[in-house]
Amino acid sequence: MSILKCDNLIMQFGGLTAVNHFSFEIKAGAIKGLIGPNGAGKTTVFNMITGNYKPTSGRVLFFNEEITGLKPHKIVSRGMARTFQNIRLFTNLSVLENVMVGFHHKIKYKLYETVLRLPRFGAEEEKMRQMCISLLDRVGLKDKINLKANELPYGEQRKVEIARALATGPKLLLLDEPAAGMNPQETTDLMYFISEIRDKFDLTVLLIEHDMKFVMGLCENVTVLDHGEKIAEGKPVDVQKDKRVITAYLGESYA
Amino acid sequence: MNFSEVIQQLVNGISLGSLYGLVAIGYTMVYGVLRLINFAHGDIMMVGTYMAFFGVSAFLLPWWASFIFAMVLAALLGVVIDKVAYKPLRSASRISSLITAIGVSFLLENLFLVLFGGVPKAFPIPKLFAGSLNIGGVILPFVSIFAPVLGIVFLLILLQLLHHTKYGMAMRALSLDIETTRIMGVNVDAVISLVFAIGSALAAAGGILWSLKYPSINPLMGILPGLKAFAAAVLGGIGDVTGAAIGGFIIGVSEILIVAIFPELAGYKDAFAFLLLILVLLFKPTGIMGKDLGGRF
Amino acid sequence: MNKKRNSLLTIASIVALFLFLWYASAHFNKYSIRILNDIAIFMMLAVSYNLINGVTGQFSLEPNGFTAIGAYVSSLLTLTAAQKHAMFIIVPMIHPLDTLHLPFLAALIVGGLVTALVGFILAFPVFRVRGDYLAIVTLGFGLVIRVFSNNAISVTNGPLGLKGIGAYTNLWWSWGWAVFSLIVIMRLVNSGYGRAMKAIRDDEDAAIAMGINSFKIKMIAFVTSAFFEGVAGGLLAHLITTISPTLFTFFLTFNLLIIIVVGGLGSMTGTVIATVMVVWGSELLRVVDQPMHLFSFTIPGVPGMRMILFSVLLIVIMLFAREGIMGQKEFSWNGFLNFLRHRKQK
User: Does residue A75 share a domain with residue A178?
Assistant: First the structure.
């Protein structure tokens, strides 16, 4: 079943065409990679999918329903969450509070129940707390839940960010360069981690990455962008040998 | 209103508009580069005007020397304010810079209140500007001609600078992406200082022209024109220099015409720019020149 | 179990506060009572102001304008028709406002609600758009309110203002509302709504990416602040009994800004502490405006020096001690008791 479908997306900024006629599909349960040289338009594609950019033309379909141009926070409630290339945690909140923010759109209590501290408020808050603690437990951070987010080492901050995205209850998880800034050990850990959560949480994953080992090891399927256009798609081992891909990354002489 | 009265008011409006435009340019440039609303900008206009006043009355300089003196001092003041109060907070949260800017604004106002008193002083008008032309029943004070002409001259010079010099290109690059510009080897701090210097000098020019028209100066004179100038900058498209000038003209002309056509609304004229600001935010937040300064992805 | 203990401690503190106020109202002189009232009203204003600025991170300059609205609306409602008829000498007050009359509490609440509505209308175009326009819009609005109250003579009596407003505000009203607003706002902050506000403050784009409707959350913060600021304005009007368009100057907003910065942006505890410090300190600093006598020298007073000191103070704090007294921390009974235990052990 196709979870996400991009249909002929075009993104133009003034005179510049950042993404040109981009189409692809992601099947349920897949871990798909979106790669390409710097400036190829990968994050732009992400932003069109998540609703941060309104495509100049084209459609984005999520579970076969059109979400093109919907407000980002609405798309989250439909089951999509993302992380950012440079980890964007809420620096003044604790690790637990960060993850609880992910849960926000599912909160059932209303404003008046909050102010009057009616029973539903306390019950929901406790339920939310327990869920988020258990999420953090699963990523191995249970003993750090009350630390301020920016007090953790980089690799763990990335895990918090992912836990936060998981708290939104997504079906599709978009990871923008999750291994950025990590050493080889952290990178390997992350690979296993993502594979695990895909299974444990019944997810589909789309990730942007530059680390080729990471992509080869983790993704079952890869789409290659260059200068805003899709130039190759398929299994990592095949794409790796594709002439156009090699040219895009290394230049003609290596093809 | 008959034809000559309309022309008269239009001239008044254009002259007023050029004042707003000159101040608006400074706002828009600083916002474009730093995403900071320099609340102290209107007060820099005030300080520049006082400097011109002292230049003529205390130092007995000829009027043109005094104006240049004032513009230079204002430029210096703008640079100093940035270096002392804004630069240390560049990496802090946005609200920190805004709060500091309000602090600087308040400080300037009260400093001048304490130093020079709240009683308005009479700005000395050079004999050259005292007269007026009479064209077919329309009275054109020399000031009303001089102001927009000077404003347009400054605008054109600035546009030249922005589009045909490397400093201008650096400024435009900064407004798009500070970090990348820095990596490209541009001395970002120097360019930011230049932005503050130019904006402040133009604000001083605007203030001086304002005083030629309304020759009563006081330490709080920058507040209202400052706000209206910011509205003008937003109306024209925040970040765009030509837009700021256009926005200034629109607000100036509208203010004058509204009072001319509906004299009973005269008391409300200061609210008009504010109303315009709200309308712009409601219907076309990117303003006339339509630059979208974008979110952060 | 801890929760029960904490609730009891909180209730006990509030009771202690009111016992103190009871004592004060019977034994303190007029000047001290006035200061206590000022502290309460400023606390209410500062806590509201901190909600939109410190907790939600939206720089706003609304208090003087919103306080004015609440002051005018509630006063116009508590003044009797006869009083209004006597006062509006330039232009008679328009109907039906001239005969409308409400008791004090209702007038305060209506004042708050009107202010909340105005806040909503004002923030609507601003929050829909990304950008730092809230500050300028609210700053301009403060001026517009002055223009309006000066010119809409049939509604506000123009520059003459309103006199003879009932002196209904006493320590119970002011502190009662201060405690009430603090409780409501703290409950808001300690909830999913509060976390969402702080998330928006820390990184709005990331907050939106996590499903937060930032327009709605910002609006909740702003309208809540507006409501309480309106009520505080009403309390103020019924304390000083005379209001006019020139009363609600930017200096009021500036004072509140200093309070929330000194206390720690985002910390309600800090705001409470800082309010006491700043209101009291401001009174003490009045001496700087007056001539001072030191032995046989007289240092001439410099009116306006206070304002200069305040602005320098604000700038210095922003440059060197941005966190303020409490930073982001809040008071908690657990923390306080632990602190006492450690002191005991030493």
Answer: yes
